[in-house]
Amino acid sequence: MTRLRTKAARAGINCGASNAVVAPIEVSSAYAREDPGAPGAFDYARTGAPGRAELARALADLEGASGAVVVSSGMAAIDLVLNLLPNGARIVCAHDCYGGTRRLMDARAAQRSFDLVYADASDLTALEAAIGAQAGLVFLETPSNPRLRITDLEAACALARSAGAISAVDNTVLSPAQQTPLALGADLTVSSITKILNGHSDMVGGSVCAADPAHVEQLAWWANAAGATSGAFDMFLALRGLRTLPLRAKAQSETALILAERLAADPRVARVDYPGLPGHPGHEIAKRQQTGFGCLLSLELKTGLPGARAFVSDLQVFTLAQSLGGAESLAAIPATMTHAAMTPEARAEAGVSDGLVRLSAGLEDAEDLWDDMQTALARAESAR
Length: 384
Ligand code: PLP
Fold this sequence. Notes:
With about 375 residues, the protein is an alpha/beta fold. It folds into 2 domains: about 5-240, Type I PLP-dependent aspartate aminotransferase-like (Major domain) (Aspartate Aminotransferase, domain 2, 3-Layer(aba) Sandwich), CATH 3.40.640; about 245-380, Aspartate Aminotransferase, domain 1. About 40% of the residues lie in helices and about 15% in strands. It has helices at about 5-10, 50-65, 75-80, 100-110, 125-130, 155-160, 195, 215-225, 230-240, 245-265, 285-290, 305-315, 345-350, 365-380, and strands at about 65-70, 90-95, 115-120, 135-140, 165-170, 190, 205-210, 270-275, 295-300, 320, 330, 355-360. It has a 7-stranded mixed β-sheet with strand order 1-7-6-5-4-2-3, sandwiched between helices. Strands 8-9-12-11-10 form a 5-stranded mixed β-sheet. The longest helix is centred in the middle third of the chain and has 20 residues, at about 245-265. It is globular and about 75 Å long. The termini are far apart. The protein binds pyridoxal-5'-phosphate. Pyridoxal-5'-phosphate binds near residues 172 and 173.
């Protein structure tokens, strides 16, 4: 059983003691022991629980990892990774990562004296210079959110390794359905399960998958010690969502490509960022290291910020909300929503202008989404 769709469809199937086909929701916070000196398979639900273990197994299988640790959010997953570093370690982080990641990196760097530098990871020369001779962690996000820049993972992870650093890749935007960073040399992949992995916008969760079993052990230790773990019902929802991941990712990427192509040809649009477009600077790398281009795209209108505000406010089929990867299409203005925690200078450096619009293509009919955009684009024109 080695193929993606089979792995996903079988997540949490036939694994309960009661012969239930679908793994039951087990809410118990404690497990009875036979021996006070030796726990059974499960002991206390902060440390481990059947639904969480099943989801971790499925995610590790999809990412090609030796194991996974499931925690309460994508941010908790990123914070978990920082526990692997000594105080004062050098961290090189992609400059255009999710805004919440930068907020956390900045705060932990101040608290733990990390030598934190941001670099454009899609530029290998800039990345190599930022890493220097020795580093603790190289944290990448590709495609990046929201500008969809592509990092050559094989080359970037090799640079990290030669400087003695762990490489971690935030794989939230694509998911293991379309990219497996461990196979390209990364040590860790981090995901917000909240996004396309679950895909139904009805739970919050995160995971870290590791190539090295020693990292899995350390991460699981910290997740238990700090109590960053998650509840049974969320695990049930995530396992249910995961079973359709490959089909959703494929359909949503197809729609994103249709929308990106049409937007790129529209005279009212100044620029479209989507790695599936042949003119995208990372297109060739994306073709090599990804098996799909993803559901996320961004654009700038010729009418700038006033046009962007009018555009997102006028959309009817898209929902104006700050998430991505769900079955429903979403629109956002990163500068005032998902990336509002970044300083204006950091946003400018990452190329996140005030008028940038981010779209997450869902499972609706692409033609309905396009029709929706026609009305909104016309409205944006008059907002000049
Ligand atoms: N990584 C990326 C790329 C994200 O887009 C997000 C959230 O938007 C996160 C991490 C954080 O995930 P969560 O909201 O589950 O904490």
